[in-house]
Amino acid sequence: MAKRVAPLTAIGVSRLKPDPSKTIEVVDGAVPGLRLRVTPSGTRTRSLNLRAKGVMRRFDVGTRLGLAEARQKADALRREVKTGADPTAARRAERKRTIAATLGIGTFGAVVDLYFETGPGAGLRTKHEQQQRIKSVFAEHLSRPSTDVASTSLQLSIDAHRSKVSAARAAAYLTPIIKWAKKRGLMIGEFDLEKPLQDAPQQRVLSVEELKVLLPTFGDAYGRCCKLMLLTGARRDEARFATWGQFDFRAKVWKIPGEQRKDTRAQGRRRARAKEELVVPLSRQSIELLKEQRVVEETRRRLEEVAAEVSVENPVFVGQSGGKLMNWDRWLKSKAITTGVSGWSAHAMRRTAATLAGECGAAPHVVSVLLGHTNIGGELVAGYNKSRYLKEHADILQQVADNLEKFERGS
User: What is the rounded distance in angstroms from the CA atom of residue 63 to the CA atom of residue 65?
Assistant: First the structure.
């Protein structure tokens, strides 16, 4: 029969002095397996030796505990282990997550970056804009361990964000990232993010008086990009991602590749059908604008001591540092302050161009051509008539450009 060990007493524990040459370990007979360890430096730790799943293991109870508190924790730990739990593994995992978060590895922000660096987001044309939106809306969660991020905390960030549009886009961008991360064990739990309720969008069209105020201020890359949208009726991304190779000054046309065009009607099997290239006639003012932008870009390149000549792959519109035009919100806010014309977006250029064309007498089918719509005159008519009315398209854009030139001059 095993010899019974006497329970430790508070007085006996207080008299236990550290030995500089070795670690002292004593057993508490009151709780089977409970031990007190005193290191040469004087640190006192409590542990519980217990058989778990057929293997004898040592579980940490705690440090700087009184005798009664240590016994209570040891009893609770014993019951927990008997139910199949593994407190040591849970604490070890928590320590790993904390260390990883401190080093920037395994954080929510690292998962987002990984998705766009080596995951499915690496090939997205809008990946930089998506990253920027996500990191703006969910900034407070970026340094947290990704496995600790919960749906409720992300939803609260969406609800509290000052811009409903940014929050809605960030929620949409984040959904596939979470799905991808969960399959790889980088995030855990159920996520069902809701977009914030938004007011009905304003179909803003700029008036002639507003154009007279705005056009003279379009002297930077953002402004010239907007001006090209006004002169052609193009979408914002078609203009800001345009490259020099798409423009033929001799033929006076802009050829927008099919993959760069937005397909708002693609459904089901139609998604597999590639968009066709769109040919946009260039007015005299459009060509002058592009040549002006080219001079500005070549000057910037010389000042920064990079190749002065632009290549066909280079984007037409770039910022002062040579990067893509990404911060439209800030630019639009600055224009609202300096001009007093607010409540408009870059897409208002496209609506305004279509409205000006209509006021110049353009027929509805010509306005539809100007906007780059696929079905001219409806699907039935478009099935028979494949004409893109290039002459009418060119004529109406030149009339719109002439009017805009007058507005800019204040007449």
Answer: 5
For residue 170, give the nearest of 200, 123, 126 by alpha carbon. Answer: 126
Look-up of token digits 């009726």: 233
- SS3 for 156? helix
Strands 278-281 and 24-27: unpaired
Report the first-to-last Cα separation within the chain, whole angstroms. 111
**What is the side-by-side strand order in the sheet with 34-38?**
24-27, 34-38, 44-52, 55-63
SS3 for 282?
Answer: coil
Strands, DSSP E only, in 252-324? 253-256, 278-281
- DSSP at 245: G
Residue by residue, pLDDT tens for the chain (411 residues) are: 456 778 888 888 888 888 888 888 888 888 888 888 888 888 888 888 888 777 788 888 888 788 888 888 888 888 888 877 776 666 666 665 555 555 456 789 999 999 999 889 998 888 999 999 999 999 999 988 888 899 999 999 999 988 888 899 999 999 999 999 999 888 988 998 988 876 555 678 999 999 999 999 999 999 999 999 999 999 999 999 999 999 999 999 999 998 887 654 444 444 445 678 899 999 999 999 999 999 999 888 888 877 667 888 999 999 888 888 888 989 999 999 999 999 899 999 999 999 999 999 999 999 999 998 877 766 655 566 677 889 999 999 999 999 999 998 887
Q: How many helices and strands, by DSSP H and E, does the chain display?
A: 16, 7
Amino acid letter at 32? P
Distance between CA atoms of residues 242 and 308, nearest Å: 19
C-alpha dist (Å) from residue 9 to 27, 32, 48, 76, 260: 11, 15, 17, 20, 80
Which residue, 386, 372, 376, is CA-closest to 238?
372
Query: What count of other Cβ atoms lies within 10 Å of the Cβ of residue 89?
Result: 9
CA distance linking residue 354 with residue 372, whole number of Å: 11
Model pTM greater than 0.70?
no
Measured CA to CA, the distance from residue 26 to residue 340 in angstroms comes to 80
